[in-house]
Amino acid sequence: MTTTKIGSACKAALAVAITGSLFAGTAQARLAGHNVILVHGFQQEDLANPPANLQDVKNAGEDYWRTFWLSRAEARIDWGSNGRIEGGIAQQAYEQMRQISQQGLCNDYCVIVSHSTGDLVTRYLLENQARWLQSEGLQPLKILAALDYSGAGGGTELANLAMSLAYNNSWYNWPLRAAVEAFTGIEPEPGKLGVVNDLQTNTARNLAVGPNSIPRLRFVAGGSSYGGITKPFIAGTDDGVVPTHSACGATTAEGIDSCSSSLSLAGKVTSQNGPDGLYYNHYPVLMNEGVTHSGVLGSETGNISVPVVNNTTLNGLRVDFASRTYNQRAWWQWWGSGDRYIEVPGSDQTDMSNLVYSTLNN
After folding, report:
1. What is d(CA 238, CA 219) in angstroms, rounded to the nearest whole number?
2. Average per-residue pLDDT in the chain?
3. From the DSSP assignment, how many helices (H) and strands (E) are in the chain?
4. What single-letter DSSP state applies at residue 186?
5. Burial zone of 97 (CB within 10 Å; 0-12 exposed, 13-18 middle, 19+ buried)
6. N or C: which end of the chain has fewer CB within 10 A?
């Protein structure tokens, strides 16, 4: 992984001006000239009130993306969180993938945008979709790359606790119960946790882990969700739901501080407890210490994004975020040049989804 010092002036100007750019309508529903497919994350409402049919699932999926990505996509793969990935979720996903194939939406390649558990669902679909579609004589979907926001492909410790609480709730203290129920939206019970079963760290890390040729671009958050009550129960840094080890694409579930061993989530150049290794073809592109788990989808501004893997081309998709390196002294530092930082200039003036879309779409 490499970081760059200073990007071009035009990219810097773009980063500052992003907040004023608005894209809407089908004419803009492409990214770098390719159709976009959305795969949403865990929806806790599905556990409390399971959807009655696929139309209910699709209605919820449409609402999920309204903040930014809905108008920039040609298709979605929606799924009910009350199901399991290798069961009902796969069946729902295949029905929609069949339609995408029949419509030829990916004949010129598609880009997948996933969030949270959508990362794990996407990984399973990418491993199996060619075989599924070819069995019916259909063309497999041609996928250029996947953009994974707050990816839960490595699971979360909150799911481990939820499953433990469901089967033995006698000894858990109030803070832990509150954290688990904030995450699941229900009081955990056996047989009612759906995809939370698949989000256990060991389970997630044994699901569809074979390497493939499709790059997974990772966008990592570090803010607080649920008022911060979940953070004490997640290993390493996290976004309130997903641990950094999962969002970065680390090969182990050990708690880490950053996707880089030399750069913090806040952009400070300093030694970090980074991942020992990353899954094949997984690339942490941006980190953002302040944005929350859901805020990465377009609802939060005022947070600095930090480039990690940058100035490169991944399967034809150009990744070239503006980058600025500077030194800053704390108020108590009276001498020296201060600490060194790297950032995407102007990224605090926009939201993370707009920043990514505007950069990769050029």
Report:
1. 12
2. 91
3. 10, 12
4. S
5. buried
6. C
